[in-house]
Structures are given as structure tokens and as C-alpha cells.
Amino acid sequence: MPRATDGTRRKDRRVKILRDAKGYWGRRSKLYRTAKDAVAKAQSYAYRDRRQRKRDFRSLWIARISAACRNEGITYSRFMSGLRRADIAINRKALSNLAIEDPDAFKTLVEQAREKVEA
Fold first, then answer.
1. If 66 and its partner were Cys, which of 73, 76, 95, 105 is the partner (CB 3.0–4.6 Å)?
2. Mean pLDDT value across residues 43-57
3. Mean pLDDT of the chain
4. pLDDT at 108
């Protein structure tokens, strides 16, 4: 029985890699050998950055809350400590949105936190 060299499984695997490399610059999108490396690197970056995105957003929310707190004359850490002592459980994403969209409600939270910190 003759040996199969260009089987469909092999071709399908190569086509899948080239399809994933579509839009890459130069030979990275045309040649299998370079496309394979480029796709592997892109997938590793994608995996890493899906986790990094969560950290980046948390940092953004904290920066926004901190800026809003400083406008009210309190630091971020004292504000968060006051919220914890006041038993107000609200996440940083919601606090950030509150500071942007409803400054009056944020101001009341700051006052409640300030009372607990000073007490």
C-alpha cells in the first residue's frame, strides 16, 4: 500500500494555521513555517493578556475612585477603610461608575465613610 504524504489532515492543519495568521504582515501570513511561529506567539500573548485585562481594569477603577475621593477631600485608602467599617459592600467597578455618573450618590458614600473613619 502506498504511503500517503499529502493527506487532508495535514493540509487541514496547515490551512487552519494560515487562516489564523490572516492579516499578519508579509510572509507571516503567507508561509506556513513563519505563520506557525507567529500564531503561537499571538496565542500566548492573547492568553496572558486575558488575565492582564482584569488587572488593568481594576487599576483604572481605583484611579477613578481615588480622583473622585480627592475632590471630596479624602484619600482612597481612608475611603475604602470607611466603607468597610460602615459595612457597605460595593465593588470598585460600581464605585467608579457611581463617581462618574452620579456624583451626589458618591458624595453621600464619602460622608458615610468619613463618619466611620473619624469615629
1. 76
2. 98
3. 94
4. 96
Q: Which residue has the cell 499578519?
A: 24
What number of other Cβ atoms are within 10 A of residue 35's Cβ?
21
The CATH number assigned to the domain holding 78 equals 1.10.1900.20
Q: Which grid cell is 71?
A: 475632590
Domain annotation covers residue 3: no
Which burial class, exposed, middle or buried, applies to 96 when counting CB atoms under 10 A from its CB (0-12, 13-18, 19+)? buried
Tens-digit pLDDT profile for residues 5-23: 777 888 999 999 999 999 9
Is there a contact between 17 and 36 (Cβ–Cβ < 8 Å)? yes
Q: What is the dihedral of CA 20, 25, 26, 28, to 10 degrees?
A: -40
Cell of 9: 489532515
